Amino acid sequence: MLFTSFSFVLFAALTMLLYFIVPGRMQWKVLLLSSLVFYALSGEGYLIFILYTALVTFLTAHVLQHRADAEDAFVEKNRATMEKAERKAYRAREKKKRFRVLCAGLFLGFGMLAVLKYTAFVIDGVRSVWTAFGGESFSIPSLLLPLGISFYTFQSMGYLIDVYRKKVRAERNFARLLLFVSYFPQLLQGPISRFGDLQEQLITPHRFDGVSLRAGLLRVMWGYFKKMIVADTAMVAIKTLVSESDVYQGVYVVLLILLYSAQIYGDFTGGIDITIGLSEMMGIKLTENFNRPFSSKSTKEYWNRWHITMGSWFTDYIFYPLSVSRPMQKFSMASCSKLGNIVGMRLPVYAATVATWFLTGLWHGAGWNFIVWGLLNCLVILVSRELEPLYRRFNKRFPRLTASAPWGAWQAIRTFLLMGLIRSLDCYRDVSLTFRLWGSMLTTWNWSELFSDGLTSFGLSQSDWAVILIGVAVIFFVSSAGKDTPVRHRVAKRPILWCALVCIMTAVVLIFGAYGIGYDASQFIYTQF
Questions:
Q1: In the chain, which residues have pLDDT < 70?
Q2: CA distance 471 to 502
Q3: 522 with 359: CB under 8 angstroms?
Q4: C-alpha 150, offset from chain centre
Q5: How far apart are CA 371 and CA 361, in angstroms?
Q6: Alpha-carbon gap, residue 346 to 327, rounded angstroms
Q7: Which residues constitute the domain of residue 343?
Q8: What confidence score (pLDDT) does residue 273 get?
Q9: Is there a domain that residue 293 lies in?
Q10: Eight-class DSSP state of 192
Q11: In the 3-class helix/strand/coil scheme, how is 292-356 assigned residue by residue?
């Protein structure tokens, strides 16, 4: 069931109505039932996989919590007779046992994701090597990929790690944990929430709040505006540019980069707006996933503003544990002794960074284009880190220049174009083809075609281009105006203005949204991950 379908609008409205009609103690059960129905409507067979993930998560967390409680009880009981060193040694032994339990849970959780999402990719690689040495080609099995499996698996495994680290206590009620795993507004594309942030919010009764309802609905409509006015309209041209890449080269690659940047921003942030808006209407506050990423002045800053919950997940659960792990510490000591402190201290950090970005790319999709995408982001970040002393000297030498607005604008534009260039790997999918098309921007000088009929040769009329440009301008204006206090919160306190604005936005989406021949209100991009 797509967020952009009328059936989803009806489903969400019925859920909201039932949510506020039932007694407060029953509200979380309404959410659980709605979440399971929502997922079943996307495919009954998908329920098996999400129930499997929830059950593995519940049982593993239960064992981890039981062992942690037994450990604490034993230490407290024998505190008077145990030396400090004995207590430390005992806790270290128990931590190793809990770590084995955690590894078993992570293996079962991530294992299912790996089998379903990456089996075809691995077999395809084996087939390529096999045929290269003269072997006979063979077919690749097609496996079912449940909707949103990457998101709910990462969220569940993050919870397990938090229980292991004793940051949260394990949930004793399976149904409540299942709600955390399957909460339908965020099921398809995040944000990737932490159990400590959602545990009480999902269970605690929420009274009807007119201001929250109005503010949430306004954000939902804003999400539909981004998705159906900008993203889905631009998608028509993007499909043509990608499918006929042998024709559309040179300046059209630049156009694709610009269009896809607008498209993925409208698509992803639009979906997140719908998710957070629906939750806000019910009194549930989800973590923000974007913070004006296209105003970033560096790649590092960009990734602190784009898909924030994914970045923090990889940082907290992959990068930091890996960088301080015992093997990495040994690697650091060996590097320092053989290569010197300057190089030796950098290598472990760089190794952890490369591993994190490799896994980030692999998380986005089972394809070499995603792996190369992740490693290119990693390369830019590491090179920028090495150049930081040079940047500081430049800033010190030209303080008036680097503090000026034009210089800040240049940094933002540079970062935007660089990220867009790397992001085009999402579109073309073939790595070698993408590199050749990047080269065509320097060798194929066909810029004049855009000023003839080039812009209307791949499915978009002049009025469609006007809709996209006006939509992008509106998004930029609203984003800039809401830096401190979101516009919707101010409007929600003025019911007449709010009603007029919702009516206008609804009419705009229905009239100018991506409907009809050639427009299909496309599935959100990140539901594929």
A1: 1, 138, 453-454, 482-485, 514-529
A2: 16
A3: no
A4: 10
A5: 5
A6: 15
A7: 298-420
A8: 93
A9: no
A10: -
A11: CHHHCCCHHHHHHHCCHHHHHHHHHHHHHHHHCCHHHHHHHHHHHHHHCHHHHHHHHHHHHHHHH
Tokens of 330: 């040994």
Cβ atoms of residues 97 and 67 within 8 Å: yes
Quick one: three-class SS letters along 269-285? Answer: HHHHHHHHHHHHHCCCC
Q: Are residues 265 and 322 in the same domain?
A: no
Whether residue 17 is found in the same domain as residue 37: yes
> Chain-centre distance of CA 198, in angstroms?
18
- Residue 137 carries which DSSP code? P
Report the Cα 184 to chain-centroid distance in Å. 16
Contact 217, 499 (CB under 8 A): no
Whole-number pLDDT of residue 246: 87
End residue of a domain, out of 176, 192, 207: 207
Among 155, 179, 207, the domain-final residue is 207
**3-state DSSP assignment of residue 189:** coil
188-213: pLDDT as tens digits: 888 999 999 999 999 999 999 888 99
**Do the domain assignments include residue 413?**
yes
CA distance 261 to 475: 13
Query: In this structure, are 102 and 214 located in the same domain?
Result: no
Q: Is 1 part of a structural domain of the chain?
A: no
The model's pTM: 0.89
How far apart, in whole angstroms, are the C-alpha atoms of residue 64 and residue 171?
A: 11
- Structural domain includes residue 137: yes
| Per-residue model confidence (pLDDT) at position 452 | 72
Answer yes or no: do 327 and 385 share one domain. Answer: yes
Report yes or no: 147 and 39 within 8 Å, Cβ to Cβ: yes
How many domains does one find in the chain?
3
Confidence at residue 517, expressed as pLDDT on a 0 to 100 scale: 40
CB 309 within 8 A of CB 238: no
Are 54 and 152 within one domain?
yes
Clarify whether residues 66 and 135 are in a common domain: yes
Query: pLDDT per residue over 494-521, tens digit each?
Result: 889 989 988 998 888 888 876 544 444 4
